[in-house]
Design goal:
- α2 crosses α3, α2 crosses α5 and α6 runs parallel beside α8.
- The protein contains 14 helices and no strands.
- The chain is elongated.
- By secondary structure, it is mostly helical.
């Protein structure tokens, strides 16, 4: 009864703003009032046609559906429920954009909180006595066994990742890989001259392998994530650049990372092939020169052994 006179230009669309006010204090719920409003808009489009309905809706300056429905999201739900979402595509797009922005903001907040917890935890582990001590010599034919503290650290970081819901989020893993690598390089004891010591860095990497691996390989059944792992290499590049590229340091760290099974061939390939202009870490060309011996060795070793399980 209301849609017909609106379609025939007898009543303005703005009439709907007050058409159901008399129901506000009655037994008719707000939900039912919204349903009646949606049904009226649907009938309007049916009688006047979709194009005319959109024109009437757009021209109704005194009609604020979001205010009537109790918010923009509720208004979109009303329109979609009535099958007339095309009346206000801009509102639908805005609500969708707002939801996406809110979701991204919540994800970013969760990521920052996770990284802060992991940062504190890793600081405590790497600052502890013996954090860079050599592993006990293994029996012949066996690999060195990680100490219980390192295994527990890997489990803790893994549980934090899973608990945050970001275990499969590449941005989170990239950020954590960079942070862990930076801390490993920063906490490693220096030489008598105050320079980073490749040997102690290597010992630390081998001791804390499980803690680093869980970031680049959140699921032990899945291959290492080369995209995330490559960011540890960019962090090494940045660290060496800050220290003036001490002779042999970068290639020795790369050897250690590969030997500790923290980084695979694919991650090194990503690091090598990434355009310097596409990644902000400085001095890529100098780093490539420093890493040339290692990369040549890796290439020949890969060709001799064939594709790795992680490729």
């Amino acid at each position: 009864y209301i849609a017909a006179p609106i379609a025939d230009d007898v009543l303005p669309l703005g009439f709907l703003a007050t058409a159901f006010n008399h129901l506000a204090d009655s037994h008719v719920s707000t939900l039912k009032q919204s349903a009646m409003l949606g049904a009226t808009l649907a009938k309007l489009c049916e009688r006047a046609g979709a194009e005319r309905g959109r024109a009437l809706y757009a021209e109704a300056k005194d009609f604020d559906l979001a205010a009537l429905a109790g918010g923009s999201e509720a208004a979109v739900e009303l329109l979609e429920g009535a099958g007339v979402a095309a009346l206000d595509p801009a509102l639908t797009q805005q609500v969708t954009a707002d939801k996406e922005a809110a979701s991204l903001a919540a994800e970013a907040a969760t990521r920052e909180a996770l990284c802060a917890r992991v940062d504190t935890y890793v600081d405590e582990r790497l600052a502890s006595e013996g954090a860079f001590a050599a592993l006990d010599k293994p029996k012949e034919g066996e690999k060195p066994e990680a100490p219980a503290t390192a295994v527990a650290a890997g489990l803790w970081v893994g549980n934090e990742l899973v608990g945050s819901g970001l275990a499969n989020d590449l941005q989170t893993r990239k950020q954590l890989m960079r942070a862990m690598m930076r801390k490993m390089l920063t906490y490693a004891p220096r030489t008598a001259e105050g320079q980073p010591c490749p040997k102690t860095i290597e010992r630390g990497l081998k001791r804390w392998t499980s803690m680093i691996q869980v970031v680049s390989r959140p699921d032990s059944e899945q291959p290492l994530d080369a995209q995330a792992a490559a960011h540890a290499l960019f962090e090494v590049q940045g660290f060496c650049s800050e220290h003036g590229f001490p002779e042999g340091l970068l290639k020795k760290i790369y050897y250690a990372l590969y030997d500790a099974d923290v980084i695979n061939e694919s991650a090194f390939a990503i690091w090598k092939d990434t355009d310097p202009d596409a990644e902000p870490t400085p001095n890529k060309l100098k780093a490539l020169v420093q890493a040339n011996e290692f990369l040549t060795w890796l290439d020949s070793a890969t060709q001799e052994s064939g594709p790795s399980d992680d490729d």
